[in-house]
TrEMBL record:
Native source species: Desulfosudis oleivorans (strain DSM 6200 / JCM 39069 / Hxd3) (Desulfococcus oleovorans)
Family: Belongs to the vitamin-B12 dependent methionine synthase family.
GO MF entries: methionine synthase activity
Annotated PROSITE patterns: PTERIN_BINDING (PS50972)
One Pfam family recorded for the sequence: Pterin_bind
GO cellular component terms, semicolon-separated: cytosol
Organismal lineage: Bacteria, Pseudomonadati, Thermodesulfobacteriota, Desulfobacteria, Desulfobacterales
Descriptive protein name: Dihydropteroate synthase DHPS
């Protein structure tokens, strides 16, 4: 599993302050830490960046690439001018720069796809359409085809498309989690050669903080089994990184067994917790904040 570090984010008090004050030290320390923790990409998330994004994004890119020049970066903002400015100063890496993201809305992708084509950038194709969140895997598929055709017409091959079917919180949209899994199984037929990614931590957005890691870890295992190529993840979750890099096959086997309808021999409390969490995500149990205690 390819990991995209999510912590260089404007919502962080420390990083947000560094962005605002143009202080390179916290930004460079965070970038180096993400590299040390095994991230494969570093996401630079400015949020909307409406006021000064066209100046801030290229500055952050240059600041990060001064100390981490070998990892590809992800340009994450809804400000198209900020993306365009950053692409002009980006120093090429072995893997292409990744634009996060291009929505399945003509007013967005008609402007942004030519930008990706011009700079040979990969891009995350966000399956958020004119009506918002897709209702099911079939609506996700329709939006994916629309974006794929638009990209192909601009000369962008499927291998440069990273589809994001959108992860929803387990405590409010539990049924959508299975819909995304179903879409992942369809993607190889819909867009052969394409990749996929997601904002993994969205699945645990809302539940108590101590329950977030096991939700993220369990859903990542499920998504990977159904073809997910990468996730945007928390670099501080070292257990998740271990699982993603193949160092915890015991956890993976237990989750897979639950997915197969089996009752695995969970001999430790750790494994029991993963069994319970997998059942919640699959909809076998209703979500509650106390699912591990039942």
């Amino acid at each position: 599993m390819i990991l995209i570090g999510e912590s260089l984010n404007v919502i962080s008090k420390k990083i947000g302050k560094a962005f605002k004050e143009r202080d390179p030290k916290p930004i460079q320390e965070e970038a180096l830490d993400q590299k040390a923790k095994g991230m494969d990409y570093i996401d630079i998330n400015l949020g909307p960046a409406k006021k000064d994004g066209h100046e801030l994004m290229p500055w952050v890119v240059q600041t990060v690439q001064e100390v981490v020049s070998d990892l590809p970066l992800v340009l994450d903002t809804s400000n198209i001018d900020a993306i365009a400015a950053a692409l002009k100063v980006y120093k090429p890496t072995e893997k292409p720069v990744l634009i996060n993201s291009i929505m399945a809305r003509p007013e967005r992708y008609e402007k942004m796809i030519p930008l990706a084509a011009e700079h040979n950038a990969d891009f995350i194709a966000l399956l958020w359409g004119p009506e918002g969140l897709p209702r099911d895997e079939n609506e996700r598929a329709a939006l994916a085809v629309e974006l794929m055709y638009a990209a192909n017409e601009a000369g962008i091959e499927n291998e440069r498309l990273w589809f994001d079917g959108i992860v929803t919180p387990v405590n409010t949209q539990q049924d959508q989690l299975m819909s995304l899994l179903n879409f992942q199984m369809m993607l190889a037929d819909i867009a052969p050669g394409s990749k996929s990614t997601c904002g993994l931590s969205n699945v645990s957005n809302g539940p108590p903080s101590h329950l977030r890691p096991i939700l993220n870890q369990t859903y990542m295992i499920m998504l990977e089994r159904y073809g997910m190529y990468s996730v945007i993840s928390d670099p501080l979750d070292e257990k998740l990184t271990d699982i993603a890099k193949g160092n915890r096959p015991d956890i993976v086997e237990v989750v897979h067994a639950v997915m197969d309808g089996e009752e695995p021999d969970a001999s430790t409390q750790e494994m029991v917790d993963y069994v319970k969490t997998a059942k919640v995500i699959l909809g076998h149990s209703l979500y509650s904040d106390s699912w591990l205690e039942v």
